[in-house]
Amino acid sequence: RDMALLEGKKTRCWTFESELIKGNPESLQQLPDNYLGPIIKVRKDQKIRIRFTNNLPQKSIVHWHGMHVPEKYDGHPKDVISNGETYVYEYTVMNRAGTYWFHPHPHGDTGEQVYNGLAGLLLVSDEEESRLNLPVGEFDLPVVIQDRSFNHDNQLVYLDGGRMDKMMGFLGDRICINGRTDQQLNLKSGCSYRLRILNGSNSRFYKLAWSNGDPVTVIGIDGSILESPKKMPYVMLSVAKRIDIWLDLKNKKIGDELALVSHAFESGMGGMMDGGMMGGGMMGGSNTRLPLGSEYRLFTINLDEEGSNDYSLSETLVPFKKLDPANAVNQNNPREFNFFMDRMQWTINGRTWEGTEVVEEETVKLNTTEIWQLSNKGGKMMGGGGMMGGGGMMGQGNQGGNKDGGMGNMMQMPHPIHIHQVQFNILERDTSEMDASVWNSIKEGIINEGWQDTVLLMPGMKVRVIMEFKDFKGLFVYHCHNLEHEDMGMMRNFLIK
Ligand code: C2O
Ligand code: CU
Ligand code: CU
């Protein structure tokens, strides 16, 4: 579809064109003039059927991010369909109320397909949520944040920086909000809103804050509404994550100014990135205007109309009963998953994507609770493969390090780690091996509560998550949600048997 995103020539996007065949018309909402897919609204316990027909020039399959569904309907890369084919999803919604989303999941092309416009929100409601008197209708507002780059012809540009761009992850130089470039939301003074913020970017993440210094009031994260509202100076919003925030405009007047910004932070891309390689121009011309971790505005709220509503935020929201580590089959011996670079490849425990292959350490039992330890271990540029030899990747500006220790940390990047099929709880976050200034620049924006499906692993960070494998056996994936890392192979299967 050709969309009017900028002055002048229209931009060719890939979109989910949707049509409701049967059901409540309210369950499918298309916001005007934007490239995103429809907002699908479902209720817990509802049975849904979705027909996906692929009209792309590439293979694809749709994944329901955060949803607890059988293998067949999870959108595993092995289930891709070709142009002209149809895949039918049919499942009962088992998730808690929360903000979920959907996007393509073919191996190798996910980054490009999402970038070209293929993504949409899936909102689940349930009884517990309905009791809360949270804003609905126009006051329940989606905010999808993505970054894009456009060429002089107004067309989307993806990965023009070549291999290095791919290694780092795509960073655009312009923020799109809800599939539009205007970075404006028109809201009513005197009203309260629920903002459902999704970071639908390929690799960029944000340090969200209000421009006037007000705290950010978080009421939900990923697949859950929190136990009580959490007021934070800022919130780190990793790739693929969602947070629901409460916005009170009751005391605001027409014309008052307010913006959501991303504050500066240290991304922790250390080692070679600060030194010779990254600093010295390996990154080419990409993303020089909007570096990761710089300060910029996401959108402005225009208060051009007065209104009133009487939604209220209570101090207790949805009770949260954290999974008990005592019930985990591996309480004292968590499964370890290390994310690092080996021989110029992003890997998980040194392995890369291999179709439907799954190894013993990735095999879990149905009806068990497990603890997984996810660690960001930086990377080994030298590996054993001699990638550096003659290729010129090292340039000259690189001081290297010693073979044993130093090299191991030369390629460090944040990795937003996502596990399909489950919502997990965060048990602990070990930051002792992190660079202190990186941690200090983000730590007040971290949320460990609630049911989550993606966790941002900053370099050196270790996170223990606990989850239950229930209802469905099958092959699912876990991966880095930096879509370029995922496409490069930082994705693996796990088997529930
Ligand atoms: Cu949102 Cu496997 O992805
Ligand atoms: Cu997912
Ligand atoms: Cu990654």
Automatic annotation (TrEMBL):
Pfam families: Cu-oxidase (PF00394), Cu-oxidase_2 (PF07731), Cu-oxidase_3 (PF07732). InterPro entries: Cu-oxidase-like_N, Cu-oxidase_2nd, Cu-oxidase_C, Cu-oxidase_fam, Cu_oxidase_CS, Cu_oxidase_Cu_BS, Cupredoxin. It comes from the Bacteria. Keywords: Metal-binding, Oxidoreductase. One of its GO terms (molecular function) is copper ion binding. Residues 26-128, 168-251, 408-496 form the Plastocyanin-like domain. Gene3D superfamilies: Cupredoxins - blue copper proteins. CDD domains: CuRO_1_McoP_like, CuRO_2_McoP_like, CuRO_3_MCO_like_1. PANTHER family: BILIRUBIN OXIDASE, CUPREDOXIN SUPERFAMILY PROTEIN. This is Multicopper oxidase domain-containing protein. It comes from Salinimicrobium profundisediminis.
